[in-house]
Specification:
111 residues; alpha+beta; Ybab, Chain: A; 2 helices
Length: 111
C-alpha cells in the first residue's frame, strides 16, 4: 500500500536536496575551446561565463571577427558541457530519495 504521508516527507527532503544541489552548481566548472585551444571559455553550472582566455597572438591583427566567432564557439561549448555536468550533479543529489514510480518524471526539476 502506498503511504502518502511518507511520500510527502520524502518530497520535502527532495526539495531541500534539490535546492542545495542547485545552489552548489555555481561551483561546477566546464570548459569549452575553439580555434585549436586559442580561445578557452569556462562556464559554471548555472551557465554563467566565469573565465575567458584568449591567446595573445589572436589580438595582434585585425582579426576582430574571427576572435568574436571563436569566443562565441568556446562559450557555447562550455555552456553545453556545464548543462550536462549540472544535470548529473542534480541527479546524484536526489538519487535514492524517491521510489521508482512509473510515469513520474522529475526531469523538469533538473534543469
Amino acid at each position: 500500500m502506498f503511504d502518502m504521508m511518507k511520500m510527502m516527507g520524502k518530497m520535502k527532503e527532495v526539495q531541500a536536496r534539490m535546492k542545495e544541489a542547485q545552489d552548489s552548481l555555481v561551483n561546477v566548472r566546464a570548459q569549452g575551446e575553439a580555434g585549436a585551444g586559442m580561445v578557452k571559455a569556462t562556464v559554471n553550472g548555472k551557465k554563467q561565463l566565469v573565465a575567458l582566455d584568449i591567446d595573445p597572438s589572436l589580438l595582434k591583427g585585425d582579426d576582430k571577427i574571427i576572435v568574436q566567432d571563436l569566443i562565441v564557439a568556446a562559450v557555447n561549448k562550455a555552456s553545453d558541457e556545464a548543462e550536462i555536468l549540472a544535470k548529473e550533479e542534480l541527479r546524484k543529489s536526489t538519487e535514492g530519495l524517491l521510489p521508482n514510480i512509473p510515469g513520474l518524471d522529475l526531469g523538469g526539476l533538473m534543469g
